[in-house]
Amino acid sequence: MSYYRILGFEEEPFSTSPDPDFFYLTKHHDAALTNILIELRLRRGLSVVLGDVGTGKTTLSRKLVQCLKERDDFSMHMVLDPSFENEHMFLASLIRNFNIPLDSISSNLSGGQAPTILDFKEALQKFLYQACLIENKTVVLIVDEAQKLTESTLEMLRVLLNYETNENKLLQLVLLGQLELHSKIMQISNFMDRISFKYILNPLSLEETRDLIRFRIAKAGYKQKARLFTEDALRAIHEATKGYPRKITMLCHRALKHLVMQSKWAADEETVLELVHEDVHSGWLIKT
Q1: Are residues 83 and 144 both part of a single domain?
Q2: pLDDT value at position 110?
Q3: What order do you get walking across the sheet with 171-177 strand by strand?
Q4: Strand, helix or coil at 2?
Q5: Is 212 left (phi over 0), alpha (psi -120 to 50) or beta?
């Protein structure tokens, strides 16, 4: 039997997988999501969300995907790892991502000639015009880990954002990346002023940490009246994790396993501090 079922859960409450159903929308995450959806509906072009490691960017992207899948008028595409050596490889990946038939490009070439960057750009432009103007779809490209984009691929995205009608952009682009993406963007002229919405995700407050933990516990089907984490434990978790959602879920997962192994039914401050001490002692955590 899984440890979480012993404690009365129907599902694992503190998985680190980016499950949108277990995503607790703080007021900041909710603001980011709501604003992005507004920008997409208005076809404003470019939205950028920045945040340190573990602040919930990837899970936010999955929540955004979940919202868009509920609508028939959106054509949604996603790039999970934008590590491309050059713009040719990047454009080729977009061609595949958008399901643009390669034979529609190669048919215009002679002698088995490989498609050029210009060929890819023309194919993408035709695809966007067909999807947006003929089929009345909103084409969305979500790029996670966007700090991995090179200057050349960012420049290529800037070019694609130039495809527009008199009213709006043909491609809706959402970039989610670590804070270093900001410096990359600043180095490219005419990119910053194309950002219609920009937002920075910060770590959670104590209250938000408490609400996140309780939300995930309830979402996982826990129905017992007894609380699994004392108030002192919640404070210790927030202090140890500095409010980073990924660190919170990992520490809570370990705390629940500890309860099962120690035949306890609630995690207190001593439990949390013991786990933190184990990490410090083993060299996995540098205490600040």
Answers
A1: yes
A2: 54
A3: 74-79, 138-143, 171-177, 46-51, 195-201
A4: coil
A5: alpha
Q: Are residues 99 and 220 in the same domain?
A: no
Contact 117, 87 (CB under 8 A): yes
Measure the CA–CA gap between 60 and 70, rounded to whole angstroms.
16
Identify the three-state secondary structure at position 76.
Answer: strand
- E strands of 105-237, at which residues? 138-143, 171-177, 195-201
Write out residues in the chain with pLDDT < 70, as ranges. 1, 104, 106-112, 281-288
Domain holding 140, by residue range, is 27-201
What is the pLDDT at residue 188?
Answer: 86
175 with 272, same domain: the answer is no
